[in-house]
Amino acid sequence: MIPAYAKPFYYQIPWKSSSIHFGEHRGTQRGLGFEFKGNVPLIDYPDARRVDLRQTLRDPYEQVQVKLFNQDNTTPIFAVCDVSSSMQFKGQGRKLDLAKEIAASIAYSAFDKSDVFSFIAYNNHVIEDLTLSLSHHVHQSFEVIEQLGEYKKMRVGSEGILEVPEYLSQNRGLVFWISDFHMPIPMIEQALNAMSAHQVIPIVLWDDHEYKKLPKFGFGNMIDPETGLNRTIFFREAIRAQFEEVFAARKQALEALFTRFDSQAIYISGKYDPDVMSHYFEQMMA
Q1: Which of 51, 114, 116, 198 has the smallest C-beta neighbourhood within 10 Å, fewest atoms?
Q2: CA 169, CA 55: separation in Å to the nearest integer?
């Protein structure tokens, strides 16, 4: 059964798939697709359905010519999800619950396009029980992703992202990296380097209650993104301004890094709208 929160979106890939399996993306394998590749003699590609009469009449060697097309193929799609301590933050909602919606949306969208899908979760290490290898089994994907709703492990980091490249395919794929990216910039850079054979799409989950909708005056509790521990802070105007400045500087640093790797990020706060994802790919392909 498809969960109600799994809402598909439209996506395309800006490269030609090297897969040998039929799908909906432009490929490099010749076959029964729609992208014209050229003409070859019938003896080289014996498919009478593709005979090109006009080109045959023009051929100086009087060989029967056939049209050659590129086959439409599949592409591997990955949802890589950070389940470190900071993803337990709850403002409008819990970040991991939002991540669950997004991952399910990616899985459903891949299923719609007949692509293979893999889900990979990590904190200090890749979590095998929350990881699913590439497959067409969308219902199994939903079952694994659903477990994020009950996941509440604290005091764990995000170093496992450096293990994720070992779980990716050799064929170029789309990697949706779902995280709040509250980790050292050098670690993010190292991970992007290791995943550079793929198109990485960072999905940044920030909640307004982390830095915009803070208490105006008085004590408040915050989760330390490094340790996962609650910290009590006495808020006043200067502290609120400092939080906003830190997040603004963080966003600037992240965007500079993502730009270097041609990985424009999607920032999501509050409710998830799949149209945001579709619009992202419309801009990418424009």
Answers
A1: 51
A2: 40
pLDDT tens digits for range 196-249: 999 999 999 998 766 555 556 555 566 555 555 566 665 566 666 666 787 889
What region, left, alpha or beta, does residue 74 occupy, with left being phi > 0 and alpha being psi -120 to 50 degrees? Answer: beta
User: What does the pLDDT read at residue 219?
Assistant: 57
How high is the pLDDT of residue 68?
65
Q: What is the DSSP string of 115-144?
A: -EEEEEEESSSB-GGG-EEEES-HHHHHHH
How many Å separate Cα 182 from the centre of its chain?
18
Integer Cα distance of 102 and 109 in angstroms: 10
7 domain-assigned: no
Residues facing 222 on adjacent strands: 231
Q: Cα(36)–Cα(122) distance, rounded to whole angstroms?
A: 42
The CA-CA-CA angle for residues 278, 281, 284, to 5°, reads 155
Show the tokens assigned to 46. Answer: 């014996």
Task: Tell me whether residue 58 is in a domain.
Answer: yes
Report pLDDT digits (tens) over 170-204.
Answer: 889 999 999 999 999 999 999 999 999 999 999 99
Q: Both tokens of residue 73?
A: 């193929």
Q: Which domain holds residue 177?
A: 76-285
Alpha-carbon distance values, 225 to 26, 76, 86, 163 (Å): 42, 31, 4, 20
User: What's the predicted TM-score (pTM) here?
Assistant: 0.77
